[in-house]
């Protein structure tokens, strides 16, 4: 009985081992065919892109030929894995090409059907697939799905709404700014920078009228974003918007205003800046603005002497340093002698 059981166990083990080796063989065979297929898709796509961007004048490639070629190598609706691999190739290629060829590439992508692969991801429940689908849509300029992306700008998931906001900028350009006042969630500093950089990369010509339409927004992130756009595009005509927020009640808005102001030479507006200096409640921000005033204007003795009489020691020391190093050593000495002369120790 024991021998029969042992023989049975050995047979079962041998069978499992045979099945394991068969599965390994099948897997290796599938992977080999799959890699060969992916290499074919990649080489064919590279050939298509090169022929489209740098056409042969005697034998130019047509869009119909490209579509037929894509179907021939397996880019069909029934083979979504091939379609998804092609989408990844398209996105990778577009990111590495700039200038006129970038625009021509967008035209080509409009003729290669994605078979709703990206929008299918957007319609899924999971946030990761949804965000990936939105990215694929704006990377490949699938403008036909804009209406489905617009509501996602206020999605509860941070990454989904980030991609949706970037998609609006890519597809609509300056017109996308009209959605800024209606965003319900906070736009982080990192997201603001991404929006500004993407807008600048794709739409170099500023449209000031579109920007001015959102000046009335009272959202903190909207004010910061507007000032970052003014700075990035070097819009000197809009510098008054930055100056108006130097003494804003919110710390982050003041910080953005001071940071953006440093990109301009507002010497003509210096009196306004000096007037608002005392209204800034944080000393560190006052020192940043004081450094800007020093770097961008002539020494205003009356202004710096007034700061010497303030109660804050850091501002007083900074003002004294500026005067001392710029030819007003005697004024600083005289001021401090007067201060000491009023003490009981000096009187004794």
From TrEMBL:
InterPro entries for the chain: ARM-type_fold
Descriptive protein name:
HEAT repeat domain-containing protein
Q: Which residues cross the membrane?
A: 6-30
What keywords are assigned to this protein?
Membrane, Transmembrane, Transmembrane helix
Question: According to the entry, what is the taxonomic lineage of the organism?
Answer: Bacteria, Pseudomonadati, Bacteroidota, Flavobacteriia, Flavobacteriales
